[in-house]
Amino acid sequence: SFFITGRLRDQGVRRLQQNNRQMVEIFMPAGLTRDGDGWKLSVRVRLVHAQVRHLLAASDDWDHEAWGTPLSAAHVGYAISAFSARLLNHMKRLGARYSDEERRSFMDVWRYSGHLMGIPPAMLFKDEEDALRIFEVGGACEPPPPMESVVLANSLVNSAPLVAGITDPAERRRLVQYVFRVSRVLIGDTLADQLEYPNHTTMGVLPWFRMQERYGRIMERLFPGRVQGSNFTKFTSLLDVSVFDESGITYALPDHVYAEESRKW
């Protein structure tokens, strides 16, 4: 559906920054209370998905018999299992450490956000183990990545410098190569090859991340004040790659199936 509508071709950076904003807000204190921005943004995703389904239903570009319902609850449930449990596993491989309570809390936040986004209970994971099972089942049901998936995956990686606000061509190329390498080592060579990722070597990627994480923990014990400043910088950097409209959070929706012909939302 993203490929047909052009959501990542037209204003693609804005779409990614909106996603970043939601992921920041749902983890803010009180972010998922009724008046919290995380709550509002999660419900907004539900409304946007419903509107896109409505627009595609009236479009000749979507083959309902072959593809079923666009942005279905099953696909959203599959995706959120990747955003939650799969992400935790990736972070662990990169050297991050979380207590059992932190892991449960992370999963609970995503579970409630998924509920707000409209995933029915039967398709919404119950805990980390269940999310991994859903991800495994969903992956087994998915066909090999078609051309549209290849284009979107590579577009997402190449959008990273734009989302981060990097304009220098050499720096942009370095970041893209870096993201490709990290992504390849996390998703594995088989899927990376199917998505036509560049055949970059992944040797040393995970050990380097783990060394950095261990170094950070040592510095935290020795210089807690310095680490607090570094953490604040990382947090503000995350905010910098998120969308904060002056008008605040709105529930404006796309009004045309093609992004280039839709009003700004």
Structure write-up:
The chain is an all-alpha fold and 265 residues long. It has a domain at 2-144 and 248-261. Helices cover 65% and strands 0% of the residues. The chain has helices at residues 2-5, 12-25, 37-57, 64-67, 73-93, 100-116, 128-141, 147-163, 169-187, 189-194, 205-222, 224-240. The chain is globular, with a radius of gyration of 19 Å.
Spatial shape: globular
Compute the gyration radius: what is it? 19 Å
Mean pLDDT comes to 86
What's the number of helices?
12
Multimerization state: single chain
Helical residues, percent: 55-70%
The string of secondary-structure elements, in order, is: HHHHHHHHHHHH
- Our measurement of the CA-to-CA distance between the termini, rounded to an integer number of angstroms, reads 17 Å
Number of DSSP strands?
A: 0
Runs in which pLDDT lies below 50 for 5 or more consecutive residues are none
User: Quick one: biggest sheet?
Assistant: none
Main structural class: mainly alpha
Our estimate of the beta-strand percent is: under 5%
